[in-house]
Amino acid sequence: MYELLKGLGSWLVSGEQWTGSDGIGHRLAEHLQYSLLATLVAAAIALPIGLLIGHTGRGAFVAINLSSFGRALPTVGLVVLVFLASGLSMWPVYIALVALAVPSIVTNTYAGMTAVDPEVRDAARGQGMRWYQVLFQVELPLALPLIMTGLRLALIQVVATATIAAYVSFGGLGRYVFDGLAQRDLVQVLGGAVLVALVAVVLDLALSALQRFLFRHRPAPQS
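Given the sequence above, the corresponding C-alpha cells read:
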C-alpha cells in the first residue's frame, strides 16, 4: 500500500503527466466539457418539465418516479445500447449522462415549486397577474434555491460518471482508469479515480458556497 501511494504521489506531481494530449490538464478539460454540456442539455429538458408539473400540479407521479429511475439507470448498459445503434461517437455518452442528470433536476424543481406558499400564489393572482407572471415572477424566484440544489447534484453525478467516455474510446479522466486497467497499472487507475473524486468534491464545495452566498438571507435548501 505504501508503495502504491508513493507511486500515486509521483504520478500526480510529474511534470510530464500534466503536458500533452494525454496529460492531466487536457484530460481534465475534456472531462469538464462532457460534464458541463450534458448538464446544460439536461437542464434545458428538465427545468421546463419540473416547472410545468410544479405550477399545474399535474403529473406529479412523473417527478416522483423519475427519482427512482435515475438511481436505477444502468448507465454503462445505456451507453452500450446507444453505441450499438449509433456507432462510434460521443452520442452514447451524452445520452447516458443527460439521462442521469434529468431526474435530479426535475425532482428538485418540482419540490421547489410545491414548497411555494399557496397563499403567495393566491395573492399574486388576486393582484391580476397572469399564469406566466405568477410562474416567472413569484414561484420561480422562491423555488430557485431548491432548483439550484438539483442542478448542483446533477452536475456532481455527471462528473462522477463521465468516466464512461473512455469506455467507448474517448477522453476525459476516465482514460486513466480504463487504460490503467488494460495495462494493469494500478497507479494510473488510482490516479484517475482520485482525480475524478477531487474534481467532484471541489465542484460540490464551490457550488455549495456560491449557493449559500446567493441565498444567504433565505433558509438553507433541502434536497
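The mean pLDDT is 84. Try to locate this feature in the C-alpha cell string yourself.
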